[in-house]
Amino acid sequence: MLRASLIISPLLAAASLSLHAQTTPSGAPGPQAAASAPEQAPASPFTANINVTTNYKFRGQDQGTLRYFSPAVQGGFDWSQNGFYLGNWNSNVSFAGNIEMDFYGGYKGEIAKDFGYDVGILQYYYPQRKNPPVNFNTTEIYGALTYMWMSLKYSHTVSTDYFGIGEAFQGSVPLTSRPKGRNTGYLDYSANYPLVDKLTLNGHLGYTRYASDLRNVKDATGATVGTPNYYDYKLGVTYDLGSGFSVAGAVAGASKRNYYGTINKTRAIFTVSKSM
Hints:
12-stranded antiparallel barrel
C-alpha cells in the first residue's frame, strides 16, 4: 500500500459554506416622496461573495498544492427568503479536475432571542471527465444551533462514499469490495467574538469521525490501514474594511499528521473578501 498521506491527501476536499453576505436596503423614494419620508426598498433576496486566499483548507486539510502558498479564488451566490435559502460556492483545488462546486439549500429559524437553528443539505460536486478513476462527489445533511456569536454544527454523510476514500482504498490495497463512507460525521464548534469595532476574533474546533468501513480497512497481512478520526482547529481575526470588504488572518491545521502527512500541517492563511 502507498503511504496513507499519498492516498488520502488528494481525496479529502470540499468547502466551507459560503459567507451568506447581508445586503443593506437602499432608500427608494416612492410617488409620495415630496409629501412624506422616502420608503426603504426591501432588501434583495440575492447576495454574492468573492475572496482570494493564500491557502484553502477544508476541515483542517490542504486542498491545494501542499505548499504554504497555494492561492485559491473562491466565490458564490445565495438566495434567501422567509428563512429558506439556496446557494452555490466554488473554489479551485489541485485534484478532481481542479474545480470544486458546492450546492446547498436549507432553512434557518429562531427558537428564542439570539438562539437560532439551521438545517439543510449540501452537495460537493467535482466536474471531472467521464468515468474518472475516483469519484469525489459527496452529499451531506447538516443541522446547527447558534447562540449570539457561537455555533455548533453537525454534518452527516448520506452518499455512498466520502470524497472517494472508499473507492481509493478498493483500488490501492486492493480490496474485493468497496468500503462505504456513508455515516461519516463532522462536528464543528465555531465562535466569532467581536473584540472591538470592526475587529472579530475567529475560533474553530472540528472533529471528523469516519464511517467504520473506512476506519477498519485491512491490508493483505490483516493490519489495519484505515483512516483514523482526527480533529482540526483554526484561530484568527477578521477586520471589516467597509463597503463589503474584509481582510482576515488565521492559523489552521489538524491532528494525526503522522498518518495524513503534510496535508494536516498548520498553515498561516490570509484572505481578502468582498460581499455584495
